[in-house]
């Protein structure tokens, strides 16, 4: 598959979302590589003040997140306008954050990585990242799982990473049921 893989005539951006430690970056990078799509690690566009705040163990608030989300949405919009499919790793914890990202254009979809709390905590303790394990509970408290009316796929790793990746690829390369349904039927 190549970067030109599209749903009908429309490019696709898959946002691999979930709390810190869910495997967003790993899954998104692998997905982009397998599909030949552009990739953006959302953490790479956090302003230095956000990184400093999280590194100090202070959760971000909405004021901190809006410029970051808008920068990601702009990157996504540029890809979609060029007809280029892409993958983004971004927490997208709340529906209003996903709504902000959806403003990038049609073709934005979400793959939600759901991982049990104990596994998330284990992963966060074992990695070197600016997000400390002490912020896990705050992320889980902020998380609003995607609703049935959102174009989202819930993914668990119960069948392994490769099976999860295959499920995301299959879903990402099919036309969205939400894109063709009238808004009141989504």
Automatic annotation (TrEMBL):
Q: Which residues form a coiled coil?
A: none
Q: Which UniProt keywords apply?
A: ATP-binding, Kinase, Nucleotide-binding, Transferase
Which top EC class is given? transferase
* Catalytic activity field: D-gluconate + ATP = 6-phospho-D-gluconate + ADP + H(+)
Q: In which pathway does it act?
A: Carbohydrate acid metabolism
Q: Name one Pfam family in it.
A: AAA_33
EC number from the UniProt entry:
2.7.1.12
Which InterPro entries does the entry link to? P-loop_NTPase (IPR027417), Therm_gnt_kin (IPR006001)
Family label: Belongs to the gluconokinase GntK/GntV family.
NCBIfam families listed in its UniProt record? therm_gnt_kin
Q: By what name is this protein known?
A: Gluconokinase
What is the species of this protein? Rhodanobacter ginsenosidimutans
- Record lineage: Bacteria, Pseudomonadati, Pseudomonadota, Gammaproteobacteria, Lysobacterales
């Amino acid at each position: 598959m190549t970067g030109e893989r599209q749903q009908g005539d429309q490019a696709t951006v898959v946002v691999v979302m979930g709390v810190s430690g869910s495997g967003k970056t790993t899954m998104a990078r692998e997905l982009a590589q397998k599909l030949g799509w552009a990739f953006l690690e959302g953490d790479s566009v956090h302003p230095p003040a956000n990184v400093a705040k999280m590194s100090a163990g202070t959760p971000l608030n909405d004021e901190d997140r809006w410029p970051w989300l808008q920068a990601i949405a702009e990157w996504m919009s540029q890809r979609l306008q060029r007809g280029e499919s892409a993958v983004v790793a971004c927490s997208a914890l709340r529906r209003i954050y996903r709504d902000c990202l959806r403003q990038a254009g049609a073709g934005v979809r979400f793959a939600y990585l759901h991982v049990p709390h104990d596994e998330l905590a284990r992963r966060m303790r074992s990695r070197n990242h600016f997000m400390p394990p002490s912020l896990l509970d705050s992320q889980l408290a902020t998380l609003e799982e995607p609703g049935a009316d959102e174009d989202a796929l819930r993914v668990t790793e119960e069948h392994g990473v490769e099976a999860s990746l295959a499920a995301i690829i299959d879903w990402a390369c099919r036309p969205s049921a939400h894109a063709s349904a009238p808004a009141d039927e989504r």
